[in-house]
Write a structure and sequence with these properties.
The complex is a heterodimer. Chain A has a single domain, classed as TIM Barrel, CATH 3.20.20. Chain A is 45% helix and 14% strand. Chain A is built from 15 helices and 10 strands. In chain A, the strands form 3 sheets. Chain A has a 4-stranded mixed sheet. A 3-stranded parallel sheet of chain A has the order 2-3-4, with helices on one face. In chain A, strands 5-6-7 form a 3-stranded parallel sheet. In chain A, helix 9 links the parallel strand 6 and strand 7. Chain A is globular, with a radius of gyration of 19 Å. By secondary structure, chain B is an alpha/beta fold. Chain B has one domain: TIM Barrel, CATH 3.20.20. Helices cover 45% and strands 14% of the residues of chain B. Chain B has 15 helices and 11 strands. In chain B, the strands form 3 sheets. Chain B has a 4-stranded mixed sheet with strand order 9-1-10-11, with helices on one face. In chain B, helix 4 links the parallel strand 2 and strand 3. Chain B is globular, with a radius of gyration of 19 Å. The model of chain B has no long low-confidence stretch (mean pLDDT 94). The chains are: A alpha/beta, B alpha/beta. Chains A and B meet through helix 2, helix 11, helix 13 and helix 15 of A and helix 3, helix 11, helix 13 and helix 15 of B.
């Protein structure tokens, strides 16, 4: 099959019916995952701090230093959260800030060592904005920072901070955050060091359809070069409690129709990605189930804890059993996986 | 098989029981949706309707206590409530003020052991007197049957009196699943499916339009769903009295029948197949209260053409764990419809167009 180019992708996003685009994505998902297995990971999002110098306008989670709700987690709190995760069968911690202005590489090295010395758990941590900040703060190259973090115990990097890889959009909604080229170059560096990462996209704010296609193309091009991405996760901007919504009052949350179109296009365009995740955190379980027929093959994580989307006023409560039931009732075979999408166990009983 | 069903639909032929069953068992989600949308466009152009309305449940004290219901209470039980006539009127005044006006009230109650038929009649009269221009959609066939039993009157007379008092149309509740073996499990005290259809038929013969519902996703089979749809299609052939069909996706929280809720895929297919089977019922509602706004929006591309309305305060589905909001603004409904690529149309109780956005 020949590759869909940018022009065709744009046309699909704008003009294809939801049935055409959905069916095509569904067929691709089926040929990549013919057994009908839908995976999920048991993990917890731990945000070690909510203090952040980036202050993105689409984010309701960050607090300035000195704010009454600002925090940095103590080791005691970290330990408790990780213990609970392991108790519940968790295999991974998603560890993310805040880009805290005063925390240097030593803080990160100590935190990673502390976790690795005390727990047997995969650390999926940080994001390019945090790594970029450390490189500048310490006067070290990105590669040197990454090597230090890896040596201290970082296993892989989630795809956060990508939002939309269009500098026009970033200029408006996250002017303090790293630009597209830097996000991509940090991911490239990580891949070249043998580290796997995921990629995300946040749409439904002020971007155009062209921006969405540019984003997908940038990720696909890098994946051609490095093959270091393990999954792609598109999700939609949640406007509650954000500065962006206050500035652009006309923004309404992207609905399911838009979400499924973008999800399906992602599956079609990213022909060098094996895994596409649904985002039940932003879409709810029912749309996530429908998403399994619009290109996705992974239900993401159980998220024993999630703070960032919740800060924007959206909260879907879900247990592991509910995720298993949801996958089954959508007529797929649920399986728990590790960070690298290796299946750990199936749930075959009725 | 699917190609043959498609041919039938396009040629305006009816699909059979076997066809409908095939669709329920099929994995052709996208194609079924596309076909249902084609039918919906033929009947309703590219429109999606909504109404500025308020739901009112004057009491939750009920002698039936259906196993699937988390709303009802027995008299004296914690959480049991009764609204006075004045409270019912006040809730309408309040809604009118907050929305600017109100097009319809939707009144569904419970089978209260002590309230007499006159009480309900007075309620309708009082509402009509104070708000002569508001459409009154009230009382399911189950309540009508109960009024008849309590008063010793005929169904005809009950309905005639209600109509004279100001009742405009009847909601479609209480239909659940018509099959007796399913009703025996989920609502043994409730009137039979036959009786429900009989009462609705009388209403239609008196010129009272009604809706019809189907509560799915509990213990019923696909065969039971198809049987339900076909009985409705048959009655509609006789009377033409159904305005809209509303598939209700089961929610099990706080109920006595615990099952995994229907998947989003099942919800979409059920709406689409309803559109394809019920070729003689003009409207299919995607009830956002039970589906959630996101899925309700998507359903507009799978055969549904109506999002119900602003509702303002929903109690029954929320008792069973519905996670949707309790009410929605016109702005939000218009946005949901537009993003689905449909034309938002505000309607009255009879689906007359009030405003095209």
């Amino acid at each position: 099959m020949t590759r869909v180019d940018k022009k065709q992708a744009l046309q699909m996003l704008k003009e294809s019916s939801i049935y055409e685009i959905g069916k095509e994505a569904d067929q691709i998902r089926q040929s990549l995952h013919p057994e009908g297995v839908v995976t999920f990971v048991v993990d917890r999002n731990i945000n070690y701090t909510n203090i952040c110098i980036n202050r993105c306008k689409f984010c309701a989670f960050w607090r300035p230093q000195g704010h009454s709700e600002a925090y940095v987690l103590s080791y005691e709190e970290l330990s408790k959260k990780i213990e609970e995760t392991i108790e519940k069968g968790g295999t991974q911690i998603l560890l993310q800030g805040g880009v805290h202005p005063e925390l240097g590489i030593d803080f990160y090295i100590d935190m990673l060592r502390f976790i690795k010395n005390n727990f047997k758990i995969h650390l999926h941590g940080f994001s390019p904005p945090e790594i970029s900040f450390l490189s500048k703060k310490e006067g070290l190259t990105v590669k040197e920072i990454l090597l230090k973090l890896m040596e201290a115990g970082l296993d892989s990097i989630p795809g956060g901070g990508a939002e939309i890889l269009s500098d026009r959009v970033r200029e408006i909604q996250s002017p303090n955050k790293i630009r597209s080229a830097e996000w991509l170059s940090i991911m490239r560096e990580a891949h070249l060091l043998g580290m796997k990462t995921s990629a995300t996209m946040m749409f439904g704010s002020i971007e155009s359809e062209e921006d969405i296609v540019e984003h997908l193309d940038a990720i696909r091009t890098l994946q051609d070069e490095t093959a270091g991405f393990i999954a792609f996760i598109p999700w939609s901007f949640q406007p509650g409690n954000t500065e962006l919504k206050r500035e652009y009052t006309e923004i309404m949350p992207a609905g399911a129709v838009k979400y499924l179109r973008v999800l399906a296009l992602s599956r079609i365009y990213l022909d060098n990605f094996k895994n596409i995740q649904v985002s039940w955190v932003t879409q709810g379980i029912k749309i996530a189930q429908v998403g399994l027929r619009f290109g996705a093959n992974d239900f993401g994580s159980t998220m024993l804890e999630e703070n960032v989307v919740r800060a924007a006023g959206v909260m879907y409560r879900v247990t592991m059993d509910e995720i298993i039931d949801a996958i089954k009732s959508a007529r797929f075979k649920p399986a728990q996986r590790d960070t690298y999408y290796k299946v750990l166990r199936y749930f075959n009983e009725n | 098989m699917f190609a043959e069903i498609k041919r039938k639909i396009r040629d305006g032929e009816r699909i059979s029981e076997q066809d409908a069953l095939y669709l329920f068992n099929s994995d052709e989600l996208h194609q079924i949706g596309e076909l249902a949308d084609e039918v919906s466009r033929k009947i309703n152009l590219n429109r999606a309707y909504f109404i500025i309305n308020r739901h009112i449940n004057p009491t939750n004290i009920c002698v039936n206590r259906c196993r699937f219901c988390a709303f009802s209470r027995s008299k004296g039980e914690e959480g049991a409530y009764e609204m006075t006539q004045e409270e019912v009127l006040a809730s309408i005044r309040e809604a009118w003020q907050s929305m600017g006006y109100l097009t319809e009230v939707h009144i569904v109650s419970a089978l209260h052991p002590e309230w007499q038929f006159e009480h309900y009649l007075e309620m309708i009269k009082a509402i009509k007197e104070e708000f002569p221009n508001i459409g009154i959609k009230a009382f399911t066939a189950v309540e009508i049957d109960y009024f008849a039993k309590k008063s010793g009157m005929d169904i005809d007379d009950i309905l005639i009196e209600l109509k004279e008092a100001g009742l405009d149309i009847m909601p479609g509740g209480g239909a659940e699943i018509f099959k007796p073996d399913v009703r025996n499990i989920i609502c043994p005290e409730k009137i039979s499916g036959e009786r429900w259809l009989e009462i609705v038929k009388v209403a239609h013969s008196l010129g009272i339009k009604t809706n019809a519902t189907m509560l799915y996703g509990h213990v019923e089979s696909y065969e039971d769903r198809v049987d339900h749809l076909l009985r409705l299609r048959k009655l509609q052939d006789e009377t033409g009295g159904f305005l809209a069909f509303i598939p209700l996706s089961y929610q099990s929280e706080n109920t006595q029948i615990k099952v995994a809720y229907p998947s989003g895929i099942d919800d979409l297919k059920t709406i689409a197949i309803s559109r394809l089977v019920l070729d003689n019922i003009p409207h299919i509602k995607s009830y956002w209260i039970m589906l959630g706004e996101k899925l309700a929006q998507l359903a507009l591309l799978f055969g549904a053409d109506c999002l119900e309305g602003t509702i303002i305060e929903e109690k029954i589905a929320h008792s069973a764990g519905a996670r949707s909001k309790k009410g929605n603004t016109v702005e939000e409904l218009v946005h949901l419809i537009r993003e689905a690529g449909k034309i938002p149309v505000e309607r009255d109780s009879f689906y007359n167009v009030l405003r095209i956005f």
